Amino acid sequence: MDYSKKSFEVSVDAFTHKLDMLEMKVEQIERKISSKADEIVILQILEHRRELEEIHKMIQGIDVYIESIEAQLQLLGERQQQISDYQEAMGLRRRKVKMPQSIAPLFF
């Protein structure tokens, strides 16, 4: 059969109805795509928020750790000052230890 020579006649109402149905299906697909895209964006935002919360907790832990180290350094400095003050009050001095010439180059 040669369809190129055969004429298909469709009423205007039938054509309009089919076109309307096609438009409704396209709109339905567009809504589904938009909804799916919104869901994906929401999931990405939630994942980023979770990651940011983890990073925030890590930073808080590091901050506490740094404060602890700073407090220990402060205490160490105070103790060293107390020792220096005590040694000075008692007339004690630190003696320099002289290294033998044969091993001195290993340390400098």
Can you characterise this structure?
The protein is an all-alpha fold and 108 residues long. It has one domain. The chain is 77% helix and 0% strand. It is built from two helices and no strands. It has helices at 12-90, 104-107. It starts with 11 loop residues before the first helix and ends with a helix.
Any descriptors?
108 residues; mainly alpha; 2 helices; rod-shaped
Mean pLDDT equals 85
Rounded to an integer in angstroms, the radius of gyration calculated over CA atoms is 42 Å
Structural class: mainly alpha
Biggest β-sheet description: none
Provide the domain count: 1
Distance between the termini: 102 Å
Q: How would you sum up the global shape?
A: rod-shaped
Q: Helical stretch count?
A: 2
Order of helices and strands: HH
Helix content: over 70%
For this structure, the quaternary state is single chain
* Strands, count: 0
Residue runs with pLDDT of under 50 for 5 or more positions: none
Percentage beta strand: under 5%
List the SSEs and their pairings.
Layout: H1 12-90, H2 104-107
Brief write-up:
With 108 residues, the protein is mainly α. Helix content is 77%, strand content 0%.
